[in-house]
Write a structure and sequence with these properties.
CATH architecture of one domain in chain B: Orthogonal Bundle
CATH class of chain A: Alpha Beta
Largest interface: A-B, 33 and 26 residues
Number of helices of chain B: 14
CATH superfamily of chain A: P-loop containing nucleotide triphosphate hydrolases
Strand content of chain B: under 5%
CATH architecture of chain A: 3-Layer(aba) Sandwich
Order of helices and strands of chain A: EEEHEEHEHHHHEHEHEEHHEE
CATH topology of chain A: Rossmann fold
Structural class of chain A: alpha/beta
CATH topology of one domain in chain B: MetI-like fold
Number of strands of chain B: 0
Bound molecules: adenosine-5'-triphosphate, magnesium ion
Oligomer: heterodimer
Distance between the termini of chain A: 16 Å
Strand content of chain A: 15-25%
Shape of chain A: globular
Shape of chain B: globular
Largest sheet of chain A: 8 strands, mixed
Number of strands of chain A: 12
Number of domains of chain A: 1
Radius of gyration of chain A: 20 Å
Radius of gyration of chain B: 24 Å
Number of helices of chain A: 10
Order of helices and strands of chain B: HHHHHHHHHHHHHH
Structural class of chain B: mainly alpha
Chain lengths: ~325, ~350
Amino acid sequence: MSVAADSFVVQIKDLHVEYKTYAGMVKVLNGVNFHVDAGEKVAIVGETGCGKTTTVKSILRILPRNSRIPKGEVLFKGENVLKMTPAQVRILRGSGVSMIFQDPTMSLNPVFTIGEQMMEVIRNSGSPGAEKREVQQELAVMALRETAMPDPERIMLSYPFQLSGGMRQRVCIAMSLSTPRDMVIADEPTTNLDVTIQDQVLKLLKERVESKHSSLILITHSLGVARETSDRIYVMYAGNMVETAPTKELFGEQLHPYTQALMRCIPRLSGGGVAEGIPGRIPNYLTPPEGCRFAPRCPHAMERCRSEKPEFIACGNGHMVACFLYDEKGGC
Amino acid sequence: MVLRWLQRIGVYFLVLLGLSILVFVIARVIPGDPARQALGPRVSEETVQALREKLNLDKPLFTQYVLWFKGAIRLDLGDSLLTRRPVIEDVRRYLPATLEIVLLSAVFMAAGGILFGIVATKYTGKWQDALIRVLSYLGIVSPPFVWAVLFMLLFGYIIPVLPTTGRIAQSVAAPTRMITGMYTVDYLLTGNLAGWWDAFKHLLLPSIALMLGGMAQAARLTRSNMVENSMKDYIQAQQAYGVPEKKLLYKYLLKPSLIPTISILALDIAAVFGNAFLVENLFNYPGLSRYGLSAMLNKDINAISGVVMVFGLIFILVNILSDMVVAWLDPRVRLMGGADV
Ligand SMILES: Nc1ncnc2c1ncn2[C@@H]1O[C@H](COP(=O)(O)OP(=O)(O)OP(=O)(O)O)[C@@H](O)[C@H]1O
Ligand SMILES: [Mg+2]
């Protein structure tokens, strides 16, 4: 890769994450490799349960208590998040990375006003003057106004239950960019919204992120959404990133058999699981397959795929794939 | 908003009315002649008949109730057959003693329940959590009179550090002026600190015996709601925005988690009045509950109705108070008039 590693806002190296459950350790992330450039908009696409949320939560160190990270690194601007001191974590969360959650009906505290919650976010941002109430108030109203919401002052005084789902998600977008951020993470921000407003909210998110020069990670089930919003796409399967390429390039040519299968499913834009058309199911994380986790479902699986895990290889034009059908010498 | 409160007050009034009819009838249909019981077996039938007439017992049940009701709205609850005083005067004398115990109990219950709930949440899965859980089960399964007996044994006889009978020690004079009727308050108002300390010590064992179950329940509920809410997206989101841990716990997580606790506390505090019947007797504590129990045993009909009505009224006040606290905590209740979330 030509880009110097320190221009990455976020880089994840060989990340393994496990959850402790009653049935035993589920080994969810299996060596995730991932990066985002400054100002880049990246989409992560993959079917439900493949570990998208787990991946991004590790960036903010908000993984559930029953999680464990046996191996791997998560770098924010070159600094290992997993080894940060509490003070560094506070800066990371306060002004580095913000996250928009999947379900807007659940992601705002029900017993505090929008204003109280937005002002709390600004207070912890460490921006100049952020400890003053007037500054918090002013920045919050400004952020709401930038999302084209009518009457921001009234919204500041409202409780979440008084707003529609679409308005709440706008509030979350406003909140995530109320002070400057290096990166915004949006975890399926539109799946729980009415279809008619999904598009508006996505456009708004894209427009806000661009005008603030932030990077974006957008998690989605839908290749269609990824195509409209992102510069580059990661395809994720069962705890691994299996392919990445600039958005145009990926829609032109898919290398990984899983991505190829995904693309064949696109015409059914029903919003269901992306892998509906692919025979088989995502593997059980308690006893995941050795080697490539897609092998049991892969029409091209070879002997080697069942014993050895494929790593990313570069195929030019920023296209990378983790599959033994392609070899290091550029045989993509 | 105002309409809703009026509606609710209307309902409460109906509840009180129904309650008054119920006790009135029950007090009269259970076997035994109140007049005969009050006067004893050796008094002549004429004298007993005269008392029956004085009590209106010779009139039809409906007329009796109307007469009682007319008195009750003027706060005249009739005379007690046992103490020969107006029931309302007995209420005035004994209620403050019971209120004192119940109020202290309620404070301990709420403060302890919420505090232990928070500690258990903070140390989820650690030994502190396990210890609080075991103690809570113990608190929930043992009824108050068991604690009362245990405390009397333990602190009255084995390590006699706390008084186990009455409101104040024999050597201590009652408050010089009765202002509220609650000794601890009156001692403070008259500046008698030694008296206050003695009265307070007398309250400790009964009020603790009465509140352990409720406290345990409130702690369990607070913990389970806090743990459940801590996994909700909004807490994770606020954590992800760098809200300091303490503020997250004590402000943003506690407030939404307390709502069910408040409702259960209201029920448990109301239950304390019921349990006080036994506990006041065990501690030989001259409160309204003990008075009510002896009224029932002696078929003192006016006293029975009076005590039940007073407790009914208090139940309702406790409920109104808890509704107000919940409305204050939960904007959905405050602004929409009810929440199912
Ligand atoms: N706290 C947890 N304890 C145990 N298992 C968990 C926990 N959180 C997630 N998992 C498991 O880890 C796997 C990946 O979960 P994750 O939420 O990262 O998937 P996802 O790709 O975001 O899915 P979705 O598209 O449904 O949001 C799933 O199998 C899930 O059941
Ligand atoms: Mg997810």
